[in-house]
C-alpha cells in the first residue's frame, strides 16, 4: 500500500521553510566557504555543485538542522561532477541551437544597428535570451526531481533518468509546482541582492542554491521516493 502523501498545507509549509533554511544552524564557515566557491565559480563549480547535493541530502534527512558543514571529500567531488554533467546535458541542445538562432536573427535584421559587428553581438544576445526561458523550463522540469533522487540514493543514474523525473512531476504536480516556485523565487531574491539589498550577488547566488536544495528535498519528503521510476 502506497504511503499517504502530506496534505497540501504541509507541502506549502515544507517549501516555505526553504527561504529560512539557509540561515539555520548559524554556521558562518558554511557561508564563507560557499561564497568563496561562488566567487571562484569557474574553478570551484564542481565542489559547489557537490555541496548542493550534500545540502539536498541533509534537508531530506533532517531539515531542522540547517545546511550541513562543508566537508571536502572524494564523494562530494564525485557528486559535483555528476551534477555538473547533468546540468550540461540539459544545456547542450540549447547551446547547439544558439549560433544558428543567432544567425537567423542576424539575417532577419533584428538588430537596431546597421553595423555588422554590433548586429552580430545583438543577434547573439537576443538568441541567448530567447533560449534561456525554454532551458529554464526544462531544467525546472527535470533537475529538482533528479537531484532529490540522486541525493537520496547516491546513484548517478538517477540524475539522468529524465523519464522518471517527468513521471515524478506528473504523479505529484502540486508538490513540484510549489518546489519550482520556491526555486524561482529563491533565485530571484538571490539575484536581487546585488542591487536591492546591497548585499552582493555572490552571497545571493549561494542563498539561491541553498533554497533550491531545500525545495528539491521537499519533493523527496512529499512521498515515498517520488523520483523513482
Strand-pairing-aware structural class: mainly alpha
> Helix proportion of residues, in percent?
over 70%
Q: Helix and strand succession? A: HHHHHHHH
Strand % is: under 5%
Q: What is the overall silhouette?
A: globular
The tally of helices reads 8
Terminal CA distance reads 17 Å
Strand tally is 0
Radius of gyration: 19 Å
Instruction: Please mark out the parts with pLDDT under 50 across 5 or more consecutive residues, or reply none.
Output: 223-229
Largest sheet: none
- Mean pLDDT, rounded to whole units? 86
How are the secondary structure elements laid out?
Layout: H1 8-16, H2 28-39, H3 41-61, H4 74-107, H5 116-153, H6 162-171, H7 173-192, H8 201-221
Amino acid at each position: 500500500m502506497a504511503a499517504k502523501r502530506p496534505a497540501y498545507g504541509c507541502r506549502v509549509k515544507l517549501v516555505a521553510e526553504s527561504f529560512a533554511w539557509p540561515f539555520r544552524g548559524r554556521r558562518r564557515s558554511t557561508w564563507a566557504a560557499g561564497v568563496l566557491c561562488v566567487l571562484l565559480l569557474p574553478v570551484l563549480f564542481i565542489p559547489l555543485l557537490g555541496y548542493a547535493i550534500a545540502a539536498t541530502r541533509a534537508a531530506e534527512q533532517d531539515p531542522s538542522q540547517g545546511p550541513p558543514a562543508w566537508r571536502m571529500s572524494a564523494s562530494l567531488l564525485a557528486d559535483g561532477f555528476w551534477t555538473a554533467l547533468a546540468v550540461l546535458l540539459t544545456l547542450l541542445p540549447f547551446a547547439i541551437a544558439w549560433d544558428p538562432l543567432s544567425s537567423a536573427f542576424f539575417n532577419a535584421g533584428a538588430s537596431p544597428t546597421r553595423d555588422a559587428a554590433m548586429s552580430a553581438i545583438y543577434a547573439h544576445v537576443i538568441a541567448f535570451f530567447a533560449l534561456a526561458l525554454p532551458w529554464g523550463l526544462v531544467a525546472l522540469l527535470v533537475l529538482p526531481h533528479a537531484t532529490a533522487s540522486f541525493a537520496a540514493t547516491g546513484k548517478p543514474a538517477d540524475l539522468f533518468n529524465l523519464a522518471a523525473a517527468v513521471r515524478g512531476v506528473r504523479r505529484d504536480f502540486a508538490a513540484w509546482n510549489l518546489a519550482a516556485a520556491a526555486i524561482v523565487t529563491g533565485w530571484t531574491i538571490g539575484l536581487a541582492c546585488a542591487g536591492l539589498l546591497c548585499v552582493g550577488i555572490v552571497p545571493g547566488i549561494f542563498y539561491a542554491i541553498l533554497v533550491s536544495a531545500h525545495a528539491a528535498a521537499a519533493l523527496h519528503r512529499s512521498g515515498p521516493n517520488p523520483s523513482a521510476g
